[in-house]
């Protein structure tokens, strides 16, 4: 994907207050760094204080501005404290990036601990719900704000041995749609981002998940060096934060223009914006059933 025109994005993002969860490593760290580079105040959040402290140090070393707030997004009181601290230190939140995630357990549903399975839903879905609920009243009162939910290609497909992760990412796609529908016309936009095959804890787990088709898929990507750098998703989030793609609120947007196994996914975000009327008319880039026609 060609650069998304970061000069315009930077001008629009400068001065925004952003919260990035799961900002201690991988995609979350890349997003936090990119937003800071674009001029946003960035609150970095994760359970591991040492990791987000390192992210903040890197932001400051690049002349950016960061606030470190350790929190477990699956605990409501932690999230409420997080947002209260950000508002007190930086001001109202303009951008929330729900990136904190969990991939375990690896294994068949019939053999895994259902409580461990549900912990992934607690982090990936409940955490995104808590964070969104915490910032929405202020966003709606001010008539402006954006929420970005980091989903996955796994949300579209059945991923044997990684069902908790796949189900949670599908839920984030639907949460995005519902939030966008409830805030439409009120100045708040909500997006889901599909980062592509970034080398993360989830993809590492997939390499030894016990399902040959999944293992071979990811092993082939890494052997060929075609995995996606986390900076690609970060670039896309900055673009969404700039307001240049607001007409796509409620849709999923891919950091990789073509997603294997997802019919119709061909356009990058700029083409999607240009063809927004067509996308709305045909209900594209939404989690929708596909059924046989009648007659």
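-> sequence recovered:
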């Amino acid at each position: 994907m060609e650069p998304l025109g970061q000069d315009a994005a930077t001008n629009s993002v400068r001065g925004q207050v952003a919260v990035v969860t799961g900002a201690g490593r991988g995609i979350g760290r890349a997003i936090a760094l990119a937003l800071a580079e674009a001029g946003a105040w960035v609150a970095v959040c994760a359970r591991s204080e040492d990791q987000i402290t390192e992210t903040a140090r890197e932001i400051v070393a690049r002349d950016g501005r960061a606030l470190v707030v350790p929190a477990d997004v699956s605990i409501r009181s932690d999230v409420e404290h997080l947002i209260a601290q950000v508002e007190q230190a930086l001001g109202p939140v303009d951008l929330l990036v729900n990136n904190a995630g969990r991939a375990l357990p690896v294994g068949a549903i019939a053999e895994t601990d259902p409580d461990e399975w549900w912990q992934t839903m607690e982090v990936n879905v409940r955490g995104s719900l808590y964070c969104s609920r915490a910032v929405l009243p202020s966003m709606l009162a001010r008539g402006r704000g954006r929420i970005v939910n980091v989903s996955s290609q796994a949300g579209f497909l059945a991923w044997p041995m990684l069902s908790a992760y796949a189900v949670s990412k599908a839920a984030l796609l639907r949460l995005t749609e519902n939030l966008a529908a409830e805030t439409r016309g009120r100045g708040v936009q909500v997006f889901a981002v599909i980062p592509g095959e970034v080398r993360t804890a989830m993809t590492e787990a997939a390499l030894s998940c016990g399902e040959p088709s999944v293992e071979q898929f990811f092993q082939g990507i890494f052997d060929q060096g075609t995995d996606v750098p986390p900076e690609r998703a970060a670039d896309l989030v900055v673009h969404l934060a700039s307001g240049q793609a607001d007409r796509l609120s409620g849709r999923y947007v891919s950091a990789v223009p073509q997603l294997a196994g997802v019919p119709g996914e061909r356009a990058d975000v700029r083409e999607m914006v240009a063809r927004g009327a067509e996308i709305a008319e045909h209900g594209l880039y939404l989690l929708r059933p596909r059924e046989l026609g009648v007659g």
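The longest strand covers residues 188-194.
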